[in-house]
Every structure is written in structure tokens, then in C-alpha cells.
Amino acid sequence: MWAVATMTTTGRARADSYLRIGLGGAAIVAAVLGFIGFEDLIPRPGLEAGEGWTDIAYYTLQLFLLDAAPLQTMGDLPVVLDIARFLAPATTLLTLGYSVKAVYDSTYDAVRARRLDAHTIVCGDGAPALLVARGVAREGRTCVVISPGTASSDPAPDLRDETVLRVGGDPRDVDVLREARIDRAREVIVVTGDSARNTDVAAAVRTALDGVDTPPPCFLEMASPELASALAAYELNSGSPVHVEFFDPVTRAARRLLDAHLPAPEDGSLVLVGAGETFEAIREDLRRRDRTSEPAVAWTSTSPSGLVEFEIPENMVRVVVAVDDDVQAVQLGLRLLQRLRDVPVDVVVATRSSTALGSTITGQHVAGSSFGRARLNLFNTTDHVYDLSSLRDGVYRDMARVAHTAYVTAARKRGESAHDNASTVPWAQLTDDLQRANIDQARGIGAKLRAEHLAVVPASETDTEFTFEGAELERLAVQEHDRWCADKKKAGWQKGPRDDEAMTHPDLVPWTELSPESKQKDRDSVRAMPDQLRQVGLHVLRVSR
Fold this sequence. Notes:
Layout: H1 12-41, H2 53-62, H3 79-113, E1 120-123, H4 127-138, E2 143-147, E3 164-168, H5 174-179, E4 187-190, H6 195-208, E5 218-221, H7 225-238, E6 244-247, H8 249-261, E7 269-275, H9 277-292, E8 299-302, E9 316-323, H10 326-339, E10 346-351, H11 356-362, E11 368-371, E12 374-380, H12 381-385, H13 388-413, H14 432-443, H15 445-451, E13 454-458, H16 472-490, E14 494-495, E15 504-505, H17 516-527, H18 529-535, E16 538-542
Parallel strand pairs: 1-2, 1-4, 2-3, 4-5, 5-6, 7-8, 7-9, 9-10, 10-12, 14-15
Antiparallel strand pairs: 11-12, 13-16
Keywords: Membrane, Transmembrane, Transmembrane helix
Protein name: RyR domain-containing protein
InterPro entries: NAD(P)-bd_dom_sf, RCK_N, Ryanodine_rcpt, Trk_Ktr_HKT_K-transport
């Protein structure tokens, strides 16, 4: 099961906790002092004989309501009772004020929620929800957190007055989602920590968005990679107007780590060391990239126990360490750092908690350490999994990267280079606009496949390579060109000589008027679809008409 780092809130959150503890402590002190004082007071003249401890307890409780009967007739009181008769009502008034404030905060948030627009809705109250809320706050936008807990359990109470609102209630309740103005939201992110509850939230989201012209996308966390893959396939086949993307944190962490640290084939090879679910996810992702890359990615893997006899490859430039226990992972990374001190290599350790763990162990103030020519780096997978850009693009970004690799390979075979075509650079060097264009192309894959009676299913090791038959490739290429033209025109582009600044392009014409070279680019894009889907664990299947 995926674990995330325990995170504490600061500022106002800590002050609220201290206030609650202080009020509880003050009430206990007042009750104890009151009881002791009344025990001392009971034998005095003016009080009826025979009053026992139950009466004393009753008088003590009356202190909190400013109505203790013995105080009405007695003038000279014991010191402890004198303290208690002021302390008890003070705690009552402060508690009442705190309760009123909590109700006011909840009501104020509900009123503000009715005026929201282009906000992010987060369903959940754990560390992932906190990471997402902070990410939205850094963007300067509003985040609405829906959780069934009390106001005191807000995932980000220290941000509450700035950009985080809380709508109490169950996110599986359609009325609660509507109260959060889901119809005007930019996105919905569901990270409750329970896969079954998350799927129930997805159903409620679809119902709440029924009839909305432009429904916001919904991103749901699944604990199981198999379940996430099956639901992703269902979503691509459904054609639902409400886009729901399912992801599992282990697979997503593996992809993000390799996106950041996988060396280019010409730079050298990678060695994967470790054991556990993160290790297996990274190894499976490497296998997929190995099948879809030209030239192939060079990598090997071994368990920690196999390191004794492991021979270091001559062209190794990176070692990735993945062990489910963070302390063991960092310790293994440090052992490798010492063993490889004479090798110019980066040792990347995947951790699920804060990189401060590695900083503490290595004695550094940053999550990195050098030993000879080798260098240790920590990769906090939790931060990368719940990063907003990672959540928003998700599986489509992974598919887009695969398609771009295929595009660059085909362009180089045609003799094109970065001087002739700015799109032939590696993915990381693409402009934001070009990356977004690739992602938009990936988002349209489901619709094109459905038009040709093709379905998507979870991939398996027994799958045979899928190839398009007959006129399928040509029809899909026409669809892809039409989609590209529609997106360009919507963004303000017009037909004309290629000029990105003037937003003109010669290919903004009907398919029949395209040059043979441009038609071939669309065909190559379609041919890359099966590999795009295989990269994210999916397979294309032909169904009977």
C-alpha cells in the first residue's frame, strides 16, 4: 500500500491545536479546584448537613454556568474555590466563542463557495490533499477541500484565510459537490485514500456535471495499478463527456522518476537496484520504454543482495535505488556511493517521504551528497506524484512523450533536424506550446479509435503487436489532421507561410490539399498510437462491428 509522509501544518493550525488543549486543561483544573474548594466549604454553617460528594460534584459543574448555589450565601471562600469560580466560566465562554467561530468559518466558506469560478476541488483530508492544496495556493488560485471531517481537520488550515476553503460533507454526495460549485471548477482531484470511495466520488461527479457544457476533468487515485489500468481503458472506450483519469501513485512515481533521470541512449546505461513495489514499477516502465525507443534504452537491474557479485557496466552513468523502506533505500544509496566513488555516476534514491530524511543521514543541508566522483541525489516520489502538472497531464503526457519520440525518429529518417523543424528536439527541450500540442493529440486517441471500432484493454505479456488494416490508417490520419486544424484555428492560427509568431501555417487546409510530406506526418502519428498506449499499460484490440 502506498504510504505518504506525515505532514504537519504550521501557524494558525498549531495555534488552534494549542488553544483546544489549553481550554481542555483549564476546564480540568477548574473542576479539580472547585471540587477541593467545595469539600472545604461544605462543613461550614449555612449548608445543610449530610451533603455528600455527589452534591459537591453538582456544585462544581454549576461553576461553569455561573450558578453554583453555595456561592449565593457565602462570602469568605477558600482560595482554590475563588480561583475556580472565575476559571470555570472563563473556559465556558472561550469554548463557546471558539465554537461560534468554527460555525462562522464553515458558513463563510459556504458563502464564498457560491461565488467561486475556475477553482480546484480536492476531495480528501490526508497528506496528498495537503500537497495539492499548497500547489494551488502557489498558483494564486482558490482550492476547495471537501472532506467529512470537522473544521479542525482541514488539510491546510494555515492557508485557510488565503486561498483554501473547506466544504464539510461527503464528496460522494452530489449536493455537496454542487455546493462547491463543481460546474464552475477548473478540475476535480480525488485523493481520499480509499479506492472504492474514490470510484463512488467519480460516479457522483458525473451526476453533478450532467448537462454542464464544458465539464471540468476529474483525476482519481487508485491504490492498485491493475485497477487503474482497467478503469483507464474503460474511460478511453466510453466517450463520456466528463473526462475522468485514473492513476495509481506507484506507477506514476516510476514514470516521473524515469522522465527526470533516464539517460539518453548515447549518454550511457542505467542500473536499477532494489526490491519491492516501486522497484517493480520502475523495472516494468523500463521494459516498456525499451520496446518503444529507437535506439533502445540500455539498463540492467539487480537486488541489493546481488550487489556483491554485480559487475559495474563500463558505460554506466546512473544508478537508481528503489526500496520501499526509505531508511533502507538511503542507506543502500550511501553504500553504493562509497563503492562507486571513483566512477562519475549519479546515484538516485527514490524516497516516499521528505528529502530531509536523506539530508539528516548524509549530514547535508540539501538532499544531495558527493563522495569522490559519485553523487547521491534523492527523488521524493510523493511530491512528484501529487504535483499539479503531473496530475493534470497524467497518462496523456506519458503518451505524448512516446509519440514525440516516434515523430523525432521519423523526422530524422526524412533528413529533418532542429534547424529545419523546431519540433525535432528531445521532449524536455520542447516549448510549452509544442508539449501541449502533443498532449492534446494524445487526448484525441480514444475518439479516433472508437470511430474505427477499436477498443482499448489493459496490456498483458501475451499481447501481439497491433497493426492497422486496410484503409484504417488513412481514415485515422484524416481524423488526426481535422483535429489538428480545429485546435489550431480555435487558438487563432490561420493559413499562411510557417510563422509561429504570426500564428500562420501552410497545412491549415483540407486533407485533399495537403502535401504528401504532411500527409505522411499524420500517418506516422497514427502508427505511433499503439506504442503510446502500450507505454501506459494499455493495448489496442479490434472488436466486431
